[in-house]
């Protein structure tokens, strides 16, 4: 079940646990942060919430903020006992201090956290990395301590083998590596240490290089970076391209060991590399990129990648600042388009400036006019800005070649064709290809098909062609498999069966008409927006079907329920559904959920008002409503009867 809003949770403990659950399962529509912040509002010293929130901030490279929270947590823990029973806060404090470059303080925190058995292994590993090749004896002792608390920890085993070699004890190192490879034959760090064949997956090799670098073995790290660079050409389809990241990590490793000139030369190689699908994912990636812009402030690619990472971590304004700095540099067309596109997304979602977003998209399309994704996204933005269907369609049809590259663009074109009165052309578009399901596209192809079929049916009915009207609706009820999706079992078909009944009635087949209208009248509820709903716009068809059947009282009652539902909906705060995992509105441009709710209510109000006028019902003054303009219906003497 959906948890209560933070303010409605009774205890600080529950606030922590709800946040922990949301974080543990990486919930798609709810963040744990508001729950932990509410817990800290009530009890600023709560250890668990401070540590949990600090961990979240640390993962977003917000180290200064994390440090404050961890200091508070450790302060409360040590107020009654100098040696806390739980070393979590101290361990995370040590990691945060390391990221901030405050090594002596970090060592002190890590050593103290190791007094707690649960944190001996991770703290000892972190301390061993700090000892590194400069103090292999201490490193060995720490690693053996860590190993005693978990003999299958591959990082500990591999670093211990490397340390033993540094101490000249090669036979011991070889035996340890052989045991490790028995445990996991695919451990790439162990394979490299043992001189065995490695993967040709560049991102994995980058991980190995970072393992070397984290323990001060820079030369080994650089050699593995060379291997990773050689593997870039064989990167698997869909894998992150790390070519530029390899160069940035090389420059960072060199700069941190004082080899600044070599670092600059490494940075100079970045812009000859393909940055398509290159995205940072590790905190170490971010550190390397920050080192790069410290050395070369005009490195536009580094700023672009930093912006992408910050945006993903919820640091919207930092992302905008980074992308603006990137846009001011000499980027190639591909990267310039990426930056302008990203600035367009951020202008809408972060700065709440749709017009600025459109200008950024125009700039992106100017340098990449043949990019079908940019065309799709700019059209979506145009729709939100209120562009007419005719204008949007003209823009798409000026680049039919790009529209043909994407299922989603074909669906948009089909919907626009129906909207401008060309439903036959819409059906031609939808039957011209085999659609594949895509994230956020659930129901869109089928919806476009239904709309076009209904439009054809209504036009045919208006022209007196009942057979054409009937066949169009039957096509909607039995969609072709090439659409790539079937109708959700909870989705209403009332609108389709109402139209089918109208077609039969026009042909003079009263029994078939009543059967179709009866099917429409029995359709209750709907499935829209990836959730079940009691009423949607399509529910109007159920009311109309009852009216056509002469069941005016039932129609009026249902319309009253519809109106009550809208009234209740208007009092319900707008929010993204707790169980939603794949909505188009979650993918790119984000609207205020309350604005979306208000628009939905306004639309449904118009539907109810139209139905009230059709049925000839009057407002019932005895039923209270939070909206005095909302019609509440009872049958009138002039109710429409078939």
Task: Tag the structure with descriptive keywords.
single chain; 642 residues; mainly alpha; two-stranded antiparallel sheet; two-stranded antiparallel ribbon; 32 helices; 63% helix; elongated; disordered C terminus
- What fraction of the residues are assigned to beta strands by DSSP? under 5%
How would you sum up the global shape? elongated
Share of helix, binned: 55-70%
Rg: 31 Å
Largest sheet geometry:
2 strands, antiparallel
The DSSP helix count reads: 32
Instruction: Please tell me the overall pLDDT.
Output: 93
Distance between the termini: 45 Å
Structural class: mainly alpha
Number of strands: 4
Would you identify the regions where 5 or more consecutive residues have pLDDT less than 50? 621-642
Q: What's the quaternary structure here?
A: single chain
Question: Looking across the biggest beta sheet, what order are the strands in?
Answer: 1-2
Give your account of this protein's structure:
- With 642 residues, the chain is mostly helical.
- The protein is built from 32 helices and four strands.
- It has helices at residues 12-24, 33-42, 47-59, 63-78, 88-99, 103-113, 120-131, 136-148, 154-166, 170-183, 188-193, 202-214, 218-231, 243-256, 260-268, 283-295, 300-312, 316-327, 333-349, 354-367, 372-384, 389-397, 400-403, 407-419, 423-430, 444-462, 466-477, 494-506, 510-521, 540-548, 552-571, 593-615, and strands at residues 526-528, 531-533, 618-619, 633-634.
- The strands form two sheets. The chain has a two-stranded antiparallel sheet with strand order 1-2. It has a two-stranded antiparallel sheet with strand order 3-4.
- A hairpin with a 2-residue loop joins strand 1 (526-528) and strand 2 (531-533).
- Helix 2 runs antiparallel to helix 3 (47-59), helix 12 (202-214) runs antiparallel to helix 13 and helix 22 crosses helix 24 (407-419).
- It is elongated and about 100 Å long.
- The two termini are 45 Å apart.
